[in-house]
Structure formats: structure tokens, C-alpha cells
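quick one: fructose -6-phosphate bound model?
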Amino acid sequence: MCGIIAYKGPKDAIEIVLKGLQQLEYRGYDSWGIGVKTQAGLDVFKKTGQIGKVNRSDIHLPESTIAIGHTRWATHGGVTETNAHPHQSPNKDIVVVHNGIVENFEELALHLSTPRVSETDTEIIAHLISQNMQQGFAHAVRETAKKLQGKSGFVAINKDTDEIAAVRSGSPLIVGIGENEYFIASDVTAFLQHTKKVMYLDNNEMVVINDAPHFYDADGKEVQKRIVDIDWEAGTSEKGDHAHYLIKEIMDQKHTIMAATNQDEEKLKRVADEIRNAYGTFLVGCGTAGKVCQTSEYFFSSIAHKHINAVVGSEFSNYHHYLTDKTLMIPVSQSGETMDVLDAMEIAKKKGVKIISLINVVGSTMMRESDDYFNVNAGVEKAVVSTKATTAQLSVLYLLAHAVAGTLQEGKSQLMNTASAVTDMLNPRYDARIRDLAQLLKGREDVIIIGRGANYPIALEAAIKLMEASYVHAQGFAGGELKHGPIALIEPGTPVIVLVNNDENKEATISNAKEVQSRGGVIIGVAPENNPAFSHWIKVPDVGDAAPIVNIIPMQMLAYHLAVLRGIDPDKPRNLAKSVTVK
Ligand code: F6R
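yep, here:
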């Protein structure tokens, strides 16, 4: 949450920071700001609202070669220009941008010589650095960082030197190395168009960029770092001819399922052995990634007859009693920065648990904190609403379930069939069909989604898609649970989406659909074949036990079209951010 970018180099720093913030906007989009260092001192420019369409000429700041910027997802203090970052010290000798939370800011504020002007926790950082400048900027930044509690990361500039300093204490910051130019950002996408060479700042480390970046540990001892090449293409993060990132990324699934299939078979077999031998394996994720974990619990059960525990990241601490050094943890995360999952990993590590994660962002904290990892290869996912990363995660876990069952080749060929079936499915006629259904649902405030087996967590995931993209209240249920309460919600016209495949759950799911139909509900069936119980049918290819991977795709499309028809920006749903780096 919140995006940070800093630049030092020969080019127009404001232009570079502006473009970087536009790339980072998915991390928060309620306000933004840029701070610069010029011959005359420090200056800042801040605005509420999204930075998306702002031009360089809209930013009234003097030319500079040193700038820092921030796009905000509010935690402390409302969405106002005053609360937007950067924040300044009272005498304007320090400017700071920050991601995360300073938990003890109220206590620290009691000792300030000048009251804060904003309601933020961040402003305190600028005050403290300014108060500690006697031994220089870097020293003041380090001493300030020591006083802060909670997980965060900040970048600061000062009036007297041409240095940029940054401290990472739990929130990601990555240093980009260009030709005589340097970047610091929350995420590589902010500077990917300028350089693919990065140096990672680890927790409790500080970097000071003057002639070059210098890294220090918490005691101020200089540490050596390697330059790492990131193999992400900037182009994959552009939306091209599509109206929104969300639909572009849905359509990317024509390729990304195949890309996810491309895993090291030896590693899959090795990890399958780890799962077989572990005294308990935990799949851990949040939100959509959590639903991927739940779906995969069914994959492991039906394909490999192996019980795996799926746990929501924020609930994992309640399972610590079961953890030993023979436990295996598989965190699943697109961003690799979700705080609740990183916290769960910290708990697991303390018990000696082995961690093999599924990541999509190369170089993310999760990747670097794991013993080993699988890259799901979905490429840059920018829309806040996760789509292609979801099916890529499902694909890798599907392969892993087959590897545990000893049927890896069978799983791989089934997944390849699934990938080509998805490529066929995602054609303009199919898209138009889903748009028509969205038209039908446009005015509804409630949608119910049901499924059995692996389609149950897919129903839950479909509900997340509809709610976050289109603000329609949607709720997923296990088909069999309807009669235990939710069926009371059905009245004539209530839309109920029924996910059904040609498997052992088919008959029971169709029975549930008929129960709804006989109470006036309008059934939208998502299935390989039509059925008299359906008022509307969304056809999906029959891909056997890989069905959850295809079934979620028309639901993603429905969420997209509903958002557009309801006049909502599908790329930036209210109150959300893509990387959830706070608790
Ligand atoms: C929903 C969505 C979120 C994320 C969740 C975890 O579309 O994107 O629910 O799935 O915040 O994010 P990652 O996967 O980055 O850990």
C-alpha cells in the first residue's frame, strides 16, 4: 500500500518520478505528491485524487535532478492535501515519503518541539530527522529509524546535501541502477522502463545515494550488495488497445496459463516429496490468493488424496501450536508483499518450518524470505482486481497436486489442454455474451453464487470479483449449504450463479439449482453443457479436474463488464490497493 519512487540523475527528475508514480498508482490512489531538491532548497507539490492523467506541465515545481514521490492509500488521517505525502520538517530542511505505519507516532509526537500540521504518522519522521541533523543527514536518518516502531519504509531528502536516504523496516524498497542515475521504489515497475538492474534493500537496512548507493546495516556498518538483473518486460505492464488493465489482464490468460505450466519438473517432484513427507502442509494466502489456497486443498484431496490445510494469512497465528520443523508452508501471493502472509511466514520460521512460496513478483520480499519458490509467470498484474495471477497460481498448485499423485505428465498435458481451451474461449463473441449477461445483472444489488467441491471456493472467489470490481453485493456458498439458511434470500428474480462440472458433484449441484428455480430465482449456469435448470448458460470448456481454472474466468469477465456498465473504474476500485502492506 502506498507507492514510493525516488530519482537522482541527470534527467528531469520530476518527469521520471511522475511516470513512476503513474506506474505505481495501483498501490494507492487517494492522493499523491512530489518533493524536489533544487539550488534554492526543498519544495513539494501535492494533490488529492488520482495521478493517472497528470502531465509534467501540471506540476508546479522548479527543475531538479533529485526528486521523491508518493501515491497514497490513507492509513492515518483523511484524504486531504495536507495529509498527502511528501511531508516536511517545520523548517523545511527535510522532505519524506513513507509506506507503512509508525505504530508509536503518538508517543513520539509528545516530544516534538513544533506541533505537526498533518494528521499523519509520517510527518513525525521529517521532524525527527530534522531534530537530529547535528552529525549529518545519514546519521539523522539512521537515528530516526531506530525510534520508529511498526513495519514501514521511508525515503528522505535534505536541504544541504545531494543525498537521498531510505530505510526499509518491513515495507519493500528496491534500488534501481541506471547509467549514472539511481532510483528507489516500492516496486520495480516504477523504474522498469529505465533499468532492469536492481539492488535489494533488506529489512533494517539503510541506503544512502550520493555518488553511488551505499548500504548500511542497523548498526551503521556498510554492507556489500550484488546487482541483480530483473527479467520482467516493461511492455507486459502496458494495457495496449484495451480500455482497462483489468480486461487486458483477463485476456492475457490466453498465454499465462501456458506460461505457468512452464515449471522445473525436478523442482515440482522435489517439492512433491516434501509435501508427502511433511507433518502437515499449510497453504497460506489472503483474499483471492486465499481462495486459490482453498481451491487447491480440493486439488490435493481429489488428485493426490492428500490433505493440505488452507489458512487465511491473518488467521495463521492461531495455528502456531501445530507447527514443527517438519511442517511445510506454501505461501501464495501475487505481490509477494502482503503483510498478513509475511507475518505468517515469520511465525512459521520461528518454529523451523520450511517455506516454499508461489510468487509472481520477482525479487519480492516473499521470494527472498522463502527457502525456495515457484514463479507463477503471470507477468506484471496491474489491475487491483487479481485475475491472471489467480489462474497462474491455480495452475502451479494443480501441477503440484499431480506431482504428489505421481501423475505429473498427465497433469501437465491436462493443463496444456486447459490453456488452449482458454485461448479458444476468450474470443470476442464470448466477451459479448458475458457483456449481455452483465446488462441483465446491472441493476441488481445482490447476486448469489454456488458450487460444490473445488467450485465452492471458486464461488467465493467469484463473489470477491463481483464485489470489488462492480460493488454488487455478491456472496458465495457451498451448494449444499443453501438449504441451511441462505435460501431464505431467494425471491422471484434473485440471480443465482451456479458453477457445475461433469464430476461427482454435478447431480447435487443441479438439484440445488432446481431448488432455487422453484422459488423464482434466476439461474445462470456456468457449465460445459446446458441444463433445463438454467435460465442463462455460460459455456465453459470441459477440462476435467482442471475445471476451477476455467470457471473463474467468465466470472472475472462478468465483474469487469458489470463495473463498466455501472460506471465504475474497474482498475481502481474504491478503498482498495493492490499490495496490502499493512495489517
Ligand atoms: C482480489 C485481490 C486481493 C488479493 C489479496 C492478496 O482481487 O487481488 O484479494 O488477492 O490482497 O494479495 P497478494 O496475492 O498480492 O498477496
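The longest strand covers residues 31-38.
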